[in-house]
Specification:
Belongs to the ABC transporter superfamily. Lipid exporter (TC 3.A.1.106) family. This is ABC transporter ATP-binding protein. Keywords: ATP-binding, Cell membrane, Membrane, Nucleotide-binding, Transmembrane, Transmembrane helix, Transport. The radius of gyration is 35 Å and the shape is elongated. The relative contact order is 0.08. It has about 600 residues and is an alpha/beta fold. The protein folds into two domains: about 325 residues, ABC transporter type 1, transmembrane domain (ABC transporter transmembrane region fold, Up-down Bundle); about 250 residues, P-loop containing nucleotide triphosphate hydrolases (Rossmann fold). It has 21 helices and twelve strands. Strand 4 and strand 5 form a beta hairpin.
């Protein structure tokens, strides 16, 4: 059978693979299942006893002597039923929440393991959907269905045994009916799978569009795209509704067909029993109790039937979770990591080649950076500057060649070891919702108050924070929404300073600072970068001038290296790149300085 039309057994595989987490709590799982069995059997016993008592009272006065004993048994059965319903509900939800907690942590670890390379082609909304709604969608299965599936097999068998004892071979009709009842959704597994994948895919698209709209709200409003965004959301919502409607129609048809199976089973069983009673082959007192046991045989299968109806949806949700869990990591830690014996920050790129897929970015890169040296990487967009920054923090590893930090290849160090020694400050730093203090403590949880202020001083942000009413406890919106671009940048720089890395990588980290702020920050950096290697990716001449050395890149190769003045005098391509980079800034500055009100 083709993969486009999977069987129900194939649909169960991703769901059961995730169930492996349950067996960390085997005892809890079996207690929950046993509790379900107890209350279902108690319910069946209570129904049968109550019917039998009524039958004796009405039709067999001679059997009244047994009624008190039967009533006592009925009270016990009802009590057991009530107690174990509560116990099973408690245990099953504890089990489900533990499984979901582990799944979310495994997803978090997987996202951390594959980021950012493994996230390059994944939309944030889809990943968020996997970590939240897809996992949440599985809670119902793990809380109410796993144990029910066991009882759906065991319960009807035991009830059938009781019916065979009471009515003879006619009891097998009930077992056949239960099997046919469960076969209805099982045989439609392929259609469920297609519908489930379609629903989860459209929901993922809707979540992605909604998240993108929330994150890019400023740009959407400023560009007048709010109506366009509304149309996107409405169109995707309509597609979700159509997919869910098809899912509901199929589910309704399954339910109707299952009701027909139950009705046919009931009628067949009634006719056989009635015939046997007429032929004096069956005690009439058994007839009502047998009908009640017929219903009790279908009760355990009801929960499993509902699970089979949603199997396609749950399988799609489980598969989306597994897609993240099984994603290969672009970088793996060595089995026996090495650690540099010094923290001087010496860097060496030895014949480094790297590309994204089939697109080469860095070619035969050889570069030595001395400890404590400040090196500016300059080049046109796509020259490989940011790629070098990402390789330095092991977001990726070179395709070939080695990057050495203090004599040890980054491949021989764990990602954590590398990132303790190399700090990257990006052009668009992300700040978490909370306070200035909490964002600083993310970088250094044990930092004291004085250390926090020292980092802010070094980043030229302390005067601003002191001017805020709540100081360090001033709230910061998600993504730093309550701060200006320059303030976000300087807070990210303060975070890096708190970590005291031996290598500081700044990828356009002063892009949001004006000339005065940049000059202040340059003075601060001159102090804090003492005995610290600094790699600066920049286009501004004012930033490049402060570097001890400039490395000019073109299409992943080093074209020129030396001081800014030397390359400026000897490399026309370098002068051209700087002229294009500075022209927009100079034009904006010239426009802002033009006198107003003079149209002559």
């Amino acid at each position: 059978m083709s993969s486009d039309r999977p069987t129900s057994a194939q649909l169960l595989r991703p769901v059961l693979r995730l169930l492996e987490a349950a067996f960390a709590d085997r005892g809890l799982f079996w207690r929950s299942t046993a509790s379900m069995s107890a209350y279902q059997f108690a319910a069946a016993a209570a129904a049968g006893l109550s019917t039998f008592i009524a039958t004796i009272v009405v039709a067999d006065p001679h059997g009244a002597q047994y009624v008190p004993l039967l009533i006592f048994a009925l009270i016990v059965a009802v009590t057991v039923n009530g107690v174990f319903i509560w116990v099973e509900s408690w245990l099953s939800h504890v089990l489900a929440y533990r499984i979901l907690g582990r799944l979310r942590m495994r997803l978090h670890d997987a996202i951390e393991r594959i980021s950012p390379g493994g996230m390059k082609h994944r939309r944030a909304g889809e990943v968020a959907g996997s970590t939240m709604s897809d996992v949440e969608n599985l809670e119902w299965f793990y809380a109410h269905t796993v144990g029910a599936a066991i009882n759906a097999a065991l319960g009807p068998l035991l009830v059938t045994v009781a019916l065979v004892v009471l009515t003879g071979p006619a009891g097998l009709i009930v077992l056949a009916g239960v099997a046919a009842y469960l076969a209805v959704p099982w045989l439609l597994g392929g259609l469920q799978a297609r519908q489930g994948r379609a629903v989860r895919a459209e929901l993922g698209e809707l979540k992605a569009i909604t998240l993108e709209g929330a994150e890019g709200l400023r740009e959407i409003l400023s560009l007048g795209l709010d109506e366009y965004q509304k149309r996107r959301v409405l169109a995707t919502t309509r597609r979700v509704q159509r997919r869910k409607l098809a899912f509901a129609l199929r589910s309704g048809a399954e339910g109707a067909l299952a009701d027909v199976v139950v009705a046919l089973t009931t009628v067949s069983f009634l006719l056989v029993l009635a015939t046997r009673v007429q032929d004096n082959a069956l005690n009439p007192l058994v007839f009502p109790a047998a009908i009640v046991l017929l219903a009790a045989a279908f009760a355990p299968a009801t929960g499993v039937f509902a699970m089979f109806q949603r199997l396609g949806d749950m399988s799609a949700a489980a598969q989306r979770v597994l897609d993240v869990l099984d994603a290969s990591a672009p970088v793996t830690d060595p089995a026996q990591p090495r650690e540099p014996t010094t923290s001087s920050g010496a860097l060496r790129f030895a014949d480094v080649n790297f590309g994204y897929g089939d697109t080469p970015v860095l070619r035969e890169l050889d570069l030595d950076i001395e400890p404590g040296q400040t090196v500016a990487l300059v080049g046109e967009s796509g020259a490989g500057k940011t790629t070098i920054a990402h390789l330095l923090v092991r977001f990726w590893d070179p395709t070939s060649g080695h990057i050495l930090l203090d004599g040890v290849s980054l491949r021989d160090m764990t990602q954590e070891q590398v990132r303790q020694r190399v700090a990257l400050i990006g052009q668009h730093p992300y700040l978490f919702r909370g306070s200035v203090r909490s964002n600083l403590h993310i970088a250094a949880p044990q930092a004291t108050e004085s250390e926090l202020w020292a980092a802010l001083e070094d980043a030229q942000l302390a005067p601003t924070v002191r001017s805020w009413p709540q100081g360090l406890d001033q709230l910061v919106g998600e993504g730093g929404a309550t701060m200006s671009g320059g303030q976000r940048q300087r807070l990210a720089i303060a975070q890096a300073f708190l970590r005291s890395p031996s290598v500081l990588v700044m990828d356009e980290a002063v892009a949001h600072l004006d000339a005065a702020q940049e000059q202040q920050l340059a003075s601060a950096l001159a102090r804090v970068r003492h005995n610290r290697t600094t790699v600066v990716i920049a286009h501004r001449v004012s930033t490049i001038r402060h570097a001890d050395r400039v490395v000019f890149l073109d299409h992943g190769r080093i074209v020129a290296t030396g001081t800014h003045d030397h390359i400026l005098a000897t490399c026309e391509q370098y002068r051209s790149v700087l002229a294009h980079a500075e022209a927009p800034e100079l034009a904006a500055q010239s426009s802002s300085e033009k006198p107003r009100g003079d149209n002559k």
